[in-house]
Design goal:
The complex is a heterodimer of chains A (483) and B (38). Chain A is an all-alpha fold. Chain A is built from 19 helices and no strands. Chain A has one domain: Sodium/glucose cotransporter (Up-down Bundle). The longest helix of chain A has 49 residues. Chain B is mainly α. Chain B has one domain. Chain B is rod-shaped and about 50 Å long. The N and C termini of chain B lie far apart (49 Å). Classes of the chains: A mainly alpha (483), B mainly alpha (38). Chains A and B meet through helix 1, helix 3, helix 8, helix 9 and helix 12 of A and helix 1 of B.
Chain lengths: 483, 38
């Protein structure tokens, strides 16, 4: 009977997802593929943005952390909310104000020239592929846990389904399917929590409050300050304006929609983390202590709900993984077509669309392969994410943010900051021994960021310029923007 | 008192999540019913 419910609910969900994707229609121009014609309304951008950042770590892993450390992880959640609100106030509207930019690389190109756009494009494609591999790995693990299939089969199923609608529909298909998936998990998981709180928590509300106090006190006692600071920094900076988020800022209907969607997504992250931690706390007294953190949510649902709900949980988890995966694959493909191929050769609109579609398949295939090959080397999902965070922030953020705000950004500053920041991050992540990095007692992301900022300063003030560059922060490129 | 605050906070958070999911679902249906590409 359980198998029947699982298959029936999965088939129904997949059919609805395909229906939504088909309603999005195939993109016939590159601007539709990359930016959904810049006509996305507030609810669609907010839902898609939130669905893109709520991945397996922000759901399954956070429930597990709530189980062991109570509401301590809200510090990380607040850092993430602050990041979104800062981007909403100071970055997203400025990005959207560029009427002719498809990617972050385009914006960097406006500020620092084509070389910097190419560098930003290569880093963006690499990062999106890395993030996609992390999501593919999570999807493969979920399918494996539920059906008992080999891991690689799960990876191929998840990546192929996601790749299909992203290849033909581009950003619009990605956004509308994200919104469908967002509605699924934003309704189902809190509903499960309220039901468990009302009927299943031992001791009812008083028992829940008791567990909150015990777990949070235990989490507070166990947390080391350096670990908390490192995590807060990683979550504050590591996902700031990564390509899928930047694409949503650029594709918003107006600058106001762009700003407000990030502000709402920031507020959403606080209440989302609250409910995920609360689910973990509710599991105390139901799920045996010693259960692996990533298994707490599944164990809780199995222990408290009937089989159809187990299948619904699978649907929710798939929605969480696929909504992040499609955003990353599409963003990487757009960066490859626009910032890498488009910088090296002149592409017509039709050719750019073709390159974008081929790039979608290539990135999806590479991510699937990387997920399968790295399954033993990167056992925890959060470790894969932290590697991507540590590379992205130093490589791109200083040059991007300063390029948006400095009156006359100079090409040498951008190129030096991006190349030095990326180089420092790679060295600290993969070359310098972990013991040496730990001995510095400063999070490596912060070290690489400072190096990138220093390189920017050198390029800006010490290297002679041939002439003023086209400024971004001056508002000269703001024609054609929304309001 | 702290118990009421904690329960109120988590319940209101869960309700807000459900409402945000419903809002996006309604807007999505309107968007897809529109029939245009965007």
């Amino acid at each position: 009977m359980q198998a029947f419910w699982t298959v029936a609910i999965l088939v129904a969900y997949t059919a609805m997802l395909v229906f939504v994707a088909l309603r999005a229609r195939a993109a016939r121009e590159f601007v539709a593929f990359s930016l959904a014609r810049r006509r996305l309304a507030l609810a669609l951008v907010f839902g898609s943005l939130s669905a893109a950042y709520v991945g397996p770590v922000f759901s399954v892993s956070f429930v597990g952390r709530g189980f062991t450390t109570g509401f301590i992880l809200l510090a990380v959640g607040l850092a993430y909310a602050v990041q979104n609100i800062m981007v909403g106030l100071w970055v997203a509207p400025r990005l959207r104000a560029f009427g002719d930019c498809h990617t972050l690389g385009d914006v960097m190109g406006h500020a620092y020239g084509r070389t910097c756009q190419l560098l930003a494009g290569i880093i963006s494609v690499g990062l999106c592929t890395g993030f996609s591999a992390v999501m593919a790995k999570a999807g493969g693990s979920i399918v494996k846990d539920v059906f008992g299939t080999p891991f690689w089969v799960g990876v191929l199923v998840v990546v192929t389904l996601t790749c299909l609608y992203t290849t033909f529909g581009g950003l619009r298909a990605s956004v509308v399917t994200d919104d469908f998936q967002f509605a699924t998990f934003a309704i189902m998981l809190p509903a499960m929590f309220l039901w468990i709180l009302a009927f299943r928590v031992p001791g009812g509300s008083a028992g829940f409050v008791h567990q909150v106090l015990i777990a949070t006190r235990a989490g507070w006692d166990a947390a080391s300050p350096s670990e908390v600071v490192g995590l807060v920094l990683a979550f504050l900076l590591g996902e700031t304006v990564i390509p899928p988020y930047a694409n949503r800022a650029l594709a918003s209907k107006t600058t106001r929609v762009s700003r407000n969607s990030f502000l709402l997504a920031g507020v959403f992250s606080v209440i989302w983390f609250t409910v995920m931690a609360a689910l973990g706390i509710a599991a105390r007294g139901i799920v045996p202590f010693g259960t692996h953190e990533d298994a707490v949510l599944i164990t809780l649902v199995k222990a408290t709900m009937s089989p159809p709900w187990h299948a619904m949980l699978l649907v929710v988890l798939m929605a969480i993984v696929m909504s992040s995966l499609d955003s990353l694959i599409n963003a990487g493909a757009v960066c490859l077509a626009r910032d890498v191929a488009g910088t090296l050769v002149r592409l017509s609109d039709g050719r750019a669309l073709y390159v974008g579609r081929v790039a979608t398949v290539l990135i999806a295939a590479t991510a699937a392969l990387a997920a399968i090959l790295s399954v033993e080397k990167v056992p925890r999902i959060i470790d894969g994410l932290l590697i991507c965070y540590n590379l992205w922030a130093p490589a791109i953020l200083p040059a991007l943010v300063l390029g948006l705000w400095v009156k006359r950004p100079r090409p040498a500053a951008g190129i030096l900051s991006v190349s030095t920041g990326a180089g420092a991050a790679v060295l600290l992540e993969f070359v310098v021994p972990k013991a040496v990095v730990a001995a510095m007692e400063i999070p490596s992301i912060l070290v690489a960021l400072l190096i990138a900022l220093a390189a920017y300063a050198v390029g800006h003030w010490l290297i002679p310029q041939g002439g003023p560059s086209s400024g971004l922060g001056t508002g000269r490129s703001e024609k054609g923007a929304g309001t | 008192m702290i118990g009421i605050l904690i329960i109120g906070w988590v319940v209101i958070s869960a309700v807000l999540l459900i409402l945000s999911g419903l809002w996006v679902a309604i807007e999505l249906v309107a968007e897809l019913s529109d029939g245009s590409e965007g």
